[in-house]
Each structure stands twice: as C-alpha cells, then as structure tokens.
Amino acid sequence: MRWPLSGTPDRAAGPEGPGDVAALDREHVWHPYAAVPQPVAPHVVSRAEGVRLTLADGRELVDGMSSWWAAIHGYNHPELNRALREQLEDMAHVMFGGLTHEPAVRLARRLAAMTGLPKVFLADSGSVAVEVAIKMAFQLTGRGRLLTVRGGYHGDTFGAMSVCDPVNGMHHLFSGVLPEHVFADRPPREYDEGYAARLADLLAGHAHELAAIIVEPVVQGAGGMHFYHPAYLRLLRELADEHGVLLIADEIATGFGRTGELFGCDHAGIRPDIMCLGKALTGGYLSLAATLCTERVARGVGVLMHGPTFMGNPLAAAVANASLDLLEERPWREEVRRIETGLLAGLAGAATAPGVRQVRVLGAIGVIESHEPVDVPAVQDVVMRHGVWLRPFGRLLYAMPPYSIGDDDLERVTTAMTAAARSLGPA
Fold first, then answer.
1. What is the spatial distance between Cα 235 and Cα 268, in angstroms, rounded to a whole number?
2. Positions in the chain short of pLDDT 70
3. Is 279 annotated as catalytic?
4. I need a labelling partner for 91 at 20 to 30 A (CA). Which of 27, 66, 190, 382 fits?
5. What sign for the dihedral angle of Cα 39, 45, 49, 54?
6. From the candidates 63, 75, 119, 153, which is the catalytic residue?
C-alpha cells in the first residue's frame, strides 16, 4: 500500500535517465566538502562490480579509491550480498537499548579477539567512534585535554575536528569554537632522537591535564597521507604508561590490512587502551564503526553517555561478519605486498615529474605529493581518460585500491597517476 503525501511528487516516479539524475542532483544534493551549487558536476554511477565503476554514460573505470578505502573486497561481492539477504529475512534493525542479537554479539567477540581489547561499543560512523573514544577518556580520567600530532585527521564531528590539524586541516573555519588541545609536530618518516625527546618533554609538561593521546598509527590519512616510523608508537605507549595517560589508536583508515599489517599498531607491537575502527569493517557495504577498549577503561568509565539510534544494526553487523570471514580466508598479506610492489614500480617514474615533491608507498597505499595544490577536475580528467577513478585532494594524488585488484588493473592505476603527475605544472 502506498501512502500519498500531500504536495509532494509521486515517490514511485524517479529519474528517467542519467541526465535527470545529474539535474536533480544539482538541484537537491549537497555533496561532501563542496559548495552549493557544486562547481563541477559529479559523475553518475549506474553499477559497481569487482574493481570497476560503470558510469551512466557507459564508461568503465577501475576504482583506485575503494570508495574512500572501505571496499577492500571490491563491489557486488556474492558472499557479502548473501549475508545481507539472509539477515534481511530475520530483521533489518532493532534498537540496541535493552535488546541484543547474534550478529552484533558475534561481531563484538571477533573484534575483541582480533585486537586484544575485550569491550566493544558499536557506533554508526568513524567520526562517532572517535567521539565515543574521547568521551571514554574524559569520563575515566576526569581530565579534558588531549595530546595529538599535527597533520592528523580524525573525522568531521566537533570532538573529532578538535584533534585534526588546527592550521592546515580542513576544519580551520571552526578553530574559534573548538576545544584547544595539545599538538606535537608531525612525526618524521625516520626515527629521530631529537623529535622523540621533544615529544616526551611536551607530554610530561601537560600530563596533569591530559586524558589521552590520540593518533592514527603509522599512516596519517586525510590529513596528508603521511607515513611515520612505528617506533614513535612504542614511545607513545611508554610515555602514556609513565604518566597515567590513555592511548587512543584511530585505526579507522589503517585497520584490516591496508598498511601490510592487520592494524597499524601491529607495526610497533603495541596495544592501545582504546581503538577506533570503521571504513573497511563492512567491506564498504554499510556504515558501521566500533570503539574498543580494555577492561580497565570500561569498568572505570561506568555508564557511557552515548547511544546511537542505529547502534549494532543487524544488517551492518551481518555484512561485517561476512567481510571478516573473507579477510580471514583470502591471502590479504600477499595481496597487499603484491599491490605495494606494483605501486612502487608503477609510480617510480612519477618522482621525476617537475611538479612532484615526493612519491611514497606503504602497503596498499600509493601517494604522489605535488609542490602546489592539485587542480582536481583537471587531474580527474587525465586519470579518467586512462580508465581510472581517483579523488585527489590538496597537494595529493593517491590510490588505495581494493585488495582484489589484478596486476593489469593496478598497472592502469599507476599509469594514470603517472600521467596526471606529468600534467602538473612545474614547481
């Protein structure tokens, strides 16, 4: 039965073609990190399968982004589809307050076993997972400041924004209303004793007011795709223990194998007090995140004042379990090493392009950093002519492809990136 709404269009009548979709998008949709109206129209996608996006005009593009790093198994995967269909037959959603269900419980148990952190709070996005982590730290310690490093990105909500880079980050417009935390310089790629000493002094000077240290392990994602030495994570773990400060690892971008280890913290052999997970958790199917913590943190916090409406959503939990099944079954370490080798070889030629400052690769992450900000539409035109989809930002052109990408498609991605690098202006 259809319920008519007075004064609204017939909901059964949708756009008739790609032109209608594009026009209605321009009329009604506000896209991420964009103005209204958006200066450059987005491309209409009609299908996604494997590692390819099919546009409404018939073009096929190899997706080098894994849909913002989430679709690690590729698109339209039969096992993930099956998990959703089977769960839908039982229930799509029930509230998590006062109720529970098998998919969420099984997921929490698996995440606890994978991380060594036994208590799991299921959230609905990465930013919310960070907010929950910050609340845990504040409630447990009774202190209200955090220490982090410059160049970081932790999400778009207010608590998360407050620990993003305050100068060069995308949230500088809100600097006057955000809490002021303590920022160390961005950690170097190689270990530096002088930097380590300055970091230790900074933490010691503020330890009395700090609830926690929060960092992205090994890779700083949307804050600049910067890689740093794992020894700094070990140092932060030691300093946190020395001064009675919690350590929060934001593994939303780095979790589930992207850097070559299951989690970024594994490069340093440390366990944080609190960990945030998201993005690849459901294989790119549904929004789901998790904040995990030690028994000590959970019991010390007591009643955590947070409760998303869609917390523990059964569909999301079911597809997350299926995604973790796939991760356990597939040789993801070998796949990520193969991608790393292909990125290193394929991007080597871009390093000598006049406009390029640096090329860097870690695991299934390949980055070309330019001297000047990238003209996003112009660079996207270049890579799309090569049959590839990438989304540059700032001075960065980067790829984080699905683990299932084949060698030929990976070569297409690196060829497109190299061509785009050569199209950049001189330094």
1. 10
2. 1-16, 18, 427
3. yes
4. 66
5. negative
6. 153
